[in-house]
DNA sequence: CTGAAAGCGCTTACAG
DNA sequence: CTGAAAGCGCTTACAG
């Protein structure tokens, strides 16, 4: 597929220089409209294809962005959706996305992606929480980067996250409005910043409604490695469960069913993410839809800015989600 | 992140030419071991990063492969798994994969990917069936390509597919061995080559066991657009259903449950793919696991071969899957 | 074992 | 409005 036709070939056929062809094809000034049209027509006729590699070479930019997904998040298709929106947005800047799954091993051994060592990318979008040490590594190497769907205490790094805090806050408010007072939270609150913030949103709602936080109502859902564990259902049964994500909502529904409970008759359940798991339960889950498209758009804007201007700092951006009402909540 | 350190910088520091540095860093002959070691050490010390773009430029190869997934298959994470294995395999050849979702619109309008027009890739792996006209377009443009997980009647194109035919053939044999005689097939047999072959494997098993093919036992599962439709369950109920994929097995199980039937007590169900849907049913589905890793490996080998030698033709390769026994089949 | 020269296909800065 | 020159960072083929 090596394109044998170059700008020079076009130039020679017409009897101009390759500089003129370059200007014409890029719609730059300094070529008469007549000549420009003639060059463009001939380019098509000759089957000319632009050589982006040559441009990269000249500009010292690869026009690729590495999209890094830590291995443990690569299972679902949630991040794949992000990736699709990211690549769509990147196209507008003539950029391409190279998806890389960061293996647990490479993350532990602080092994940077090969794209970095081969100057194959101009920067990275990190999709999903990575270890603090790995972040330090990226920072120390002065690698342009943007965090998507998580953040850390490195205040100088741009992050785009869904508004976990307000999302769950509003969802819990909704449960309270429906008459619920005994509301449990399901999630390991030491696991990721997302879960922590969702928990805090839940807690804020309790505080505002003078409902006390019951230690027994914080139900762990996964171990340190992120593997889901068997859920311990409190006795007596809370009237509602706020799950930190839809998949855990799905697990909870199965657990409740196996114990003979019906949702929403015996208790209500809400999730977060609006991913496939929220539609696999019976009844389907009321949940919060993450605005993947908008988040991806902002992430791309930020990384492109960052490549142009190393010192550009856009900070932490929260993108609001939307509550999706389904049938897993009962008014009491 | 522009790497300011070049081979020439290293060369000047040591007092040799950049040719020697290139040879040393690439472990080529013609440099004394002593010098080689010195150059390598200095490269690390200076934080040198190889510039793959310059190599691409020189060789006229982008060292990228486009992985094209038609939009309608981009929903699940089945193809994402392929993508992961593909990129892992590509690394061994110093290649990178650029994933592109082919929109229904671009497919219809015969719009080639932008990576092609910008010479960003050296070839394509097409992951999932695309229209015949689009295939013609790729062929007419002389684009190196390999088909993964589907094939067509274009006999000159390399395809790597799972052994659909024998997979379902063996699975149906297993049902017959368990005493089943009234076996239905669920799938639109005019939809894709995969479904067709799976159907034919089912039919072969019937033929070999002198079981007649009952027209009413071929149950359509999707319309022309690939959207799943409501399943019509035959009356009387067959003793077993062979579903063309796990997701349809999942749909069928839901349908059967809603009608008051129990699996496997009232009838048995088997699927294909061993994807997430096979584990979401209760009981979980007996199915055929597709050997994604091996298929990806072969696809990468083929496309790399093809880039080196345009006329290399490897044909159609069938990769065997493995039956996964779970609890959705009863011996009768 | 080592290096000068040429070239991959563009674009930028400058001269005319 | 048009073009000659230089350069991006490598590698190949050849000469010494």
Automatic annotation (TrEMBL), chains A, B:
Record domain HTH lacI-type: where: 5-59
GO MF annotation: an example: transcription cis-regulatory region binding
Highest taxon above the source species: Bacteria
Keywords: DNA-binding, Repressor, Transcription, Transcription regulation
Pfam families tied to this protein: LacI, Peripla_BP_3
InterPro entries linked to this entry: HTH_LacI (IPR000843), LacI/GalR-like_sensor (IPR046335), Lambda_DNA-bd_dom_sf (IPR010982), Peripla_BP_I (IPR028082)
Protein name: DNA-binding transcriptional regulator
């Amino acid at each position: 597929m090596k394109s044998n036709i170059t700008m020079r070939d076009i130039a020679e056929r017409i009897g101009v220089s390759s500089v003129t062809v370059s200007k014409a094809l890029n719609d730059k000034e300094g070529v008469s409209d007549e000549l420009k049209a003639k060059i463009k027509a001939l380019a098509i006729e000759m089957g000319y294809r632009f050589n982006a590699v040559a441009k990269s070479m000249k500009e010292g930019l690869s026009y690729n962005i590495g999209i890094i997904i830590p291995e443990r998040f690569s299972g679902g298709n949630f991040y794949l959706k992000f990736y699709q929106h990211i690549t769509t947005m990147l196209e507008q800047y003539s950029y391409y996305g190279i998806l890389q799954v960061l293996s647990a091993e490479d993350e532990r051994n602080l092994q940077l992606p090969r794209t970095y060592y081969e100057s194959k990318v101009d920067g990275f979008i990190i999709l999903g929480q990575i270890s603090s040490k790995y972040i330090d590594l990226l920072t120390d190497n002065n690698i342009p980067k943007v965090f998507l769907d998580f953040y850390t205490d490195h205040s100088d790094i741009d992050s785009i996250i869904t508004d976990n805090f307000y999302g769950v806050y509003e969802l819990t408010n909704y449960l309270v409005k429906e008459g619920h007072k005994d509301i449990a939270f399901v999630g390991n609150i030491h696991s990721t910043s997302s879960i922590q913030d969702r928990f805090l949103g839940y807690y804020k709602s309790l505080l505002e409604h003078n409902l006390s936080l019951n230690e027994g109502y914080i139900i762990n859902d996964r171990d340190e490695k992120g593997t889901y564990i068997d859920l311990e259902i409190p006795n007596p049964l809370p009237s509602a469960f706020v799950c930190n994500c839809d998949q855990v909502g799905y697990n909870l529904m199965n657990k409740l069913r196996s114990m003979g409970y019906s949702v929403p008759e015996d208790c209500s359940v809400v999730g977060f993410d609006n991913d496939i798991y929220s539609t696999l339960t019976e009844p389907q889950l009321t949940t919060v839809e993450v605005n993947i498209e908008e988040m991806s758009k902002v992430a791309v804007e930020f990384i492109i800015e960052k490549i142009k201007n190393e010192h550009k700092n856009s900070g932490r951006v929260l993108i609001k989600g939307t509550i999706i009402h389904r049938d897993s909540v009962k008014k009491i």
